[in-house]
Structures are given as structure tokens and as C-alpha cells.
Amino acid sequence: MLTHRIKRDPSRHLLYDNYPDFDRAVAKWLRDPTRRPQHTMGLGIDRSDSLLYEGVTEHVRRMAPMFSDAAANPRGCKLILLTKSANTHYLEEVAPGHRKNVVVTLSLNPEAVADLWEGKWADGERITPSIARRLDAARLAQDLGYEVRVRVDPILTPGGWEAQYRDFVAEVKQSGVNFRYWTLGTYREKNKQLDAWRDRWSLPEMEWEPTELESDGTHRHLPVQRRVEIYHAVTNAIQAEFPEARVSLCKETHQVRKMLRLCNSDCNCLL
């Protein structure tokens, strides 16, 4: 019987190398007769980074041909890559004819917000690349012919946040990146899992987090009116620079969507 908790270093990730099993599962998913064109497959998405280990696993480079093949992918479903990395250079190795059903989504925030949220090493250096490097990576993917999208999630609201988000959107404009979809989300939590993992791995406390969370739908959110105010501010900043931008919300209630008139399916995880 164990009398103490075994702690795993969260920076030492576990990678599985049973690649044929991955490929067979993807092929089976694509051939499923119940599959519909709006269905997408995410490589990572909520639980991992789609491109962080692409240099090792080559998942995208192996799977992209399946998604471009009409016989293998009869419904034309898309492969969604969500990343906080700047590793889109690996996508240059995908043949141009195999890129059409691969979507690259960058998870971004203003630099100062990313500093609060994305984690730091023991020496204080942030783990993730700078926002400027990630925008360069998005521009590379765009220039290679991939569809590019962005998730601004979670939107955090420390002092001066509105100006930070305006400056961030202006930075996107200056970079030459034209994201097809902008998916927004405010801070939310399904349960106290962040605190549980922080305790398990002896991680430091968050540098900033909201205090006024309340139960709403399947998650604990900021109060409805506060979320609406935040979404209005960020949407206005986006549309000031990108008047034709397609903005959507992630994991939001019908009430909030109706209040904002954003009852659409222009979302990162959908067609």
C-alpha cells in the first residue's frame, strides 16, 4: 500500500509511438457512414497541442494525405490543428495537394495576458513562444495555402485589458494574417480541475484569475452581463480592424449568444 503521492513532472510529456493504430483509427473515422461534412477531427484541441511534437510524431504529415483523398475522406471532413507553438514550418513538408482540408488555428492573446496565463519556467521565462513569433507562424501557414483561424480564449481582464486587446488585434492586422474565424471565450471552469492538477504537480498559483465566478450552464462563468461586456469590447476591436471578420463564441450559453447576436457556427471546431 502506497503511503505517499507519486508526483510526475508535468514538463516531461508522454508520447505514444503506436502510429499504425492512430492511422487506422483516423481512416475508420473518415469512412464511418454516419460521418457528415461539418464533422472535424482535432489533433489535440482540448488536451494537447497539435503541433508541439510534430517534429517527433509526424502525425500531420502522415494524416494530411488521408484528409485530401476523396476516397479516404468522402465527406471532405477537415483536420483541425490547434497550437500555441510556432511549429508551422513542419507543414511545408506536406505536399501542396494535401493541404486543402487541414486547418491551422493559433491560440493567441495579447502578450501581457499570455504572460499571466500560459505558464513560466522556474527562471521566470514564459514556456510558450512570443505572440509575434506565433503570428509569423500563422502567416507562414497562410502563405502555404492553409486555412488559418484564431482562438482568443480565455479572454482575461487585468488592468488595462481593453487597450491590450485593441493593440493585439492591430498587431494581427499588421502581420498580414487574415484569420477566417475568430473564436472567443471568457474564463470558465467545469470544476476545480486546475486547482487539483496544480496541487498534484506542485505548480505555482495563477498570477491572475477572476473572483466572481458563478454556475451557469455546464460551467462556472463570470456573470452574464460581465461576459457580454467583455465580448462586446473584443468584438468591436476585431471588427474595427477586420470589418468582415467572422466572430463566434466557445462553450457559451444560448442566452449570451442571443444577447450578442452571435448564434452562429463559425467556430474553430466546426466546418
Describe this structure in words.
By secondary structure, the chain is an alpha/beta fold. The chain has nine helices and nine strands. It has helices at 19-31, 54-57, 59-68, 111-117, 131-143, 161-175, 193-201, 224-241, 254-260; strands at 40-43, 78-83, 102-107, 147-155, 181-186, 188-189, 214-216, 219-221, 246-249. The strands form two sheets. A six-stranded parallel beta sheet has the order 1-2-3-4-5-9. The protein has a three-stranded antiparallel beta sheet with strand order 6-8-7, with no helix packed on it. It is globular and about 50 Å long. It starts with 18 loop residues before the first helix and ends in an 11-residue tail after the last helix.
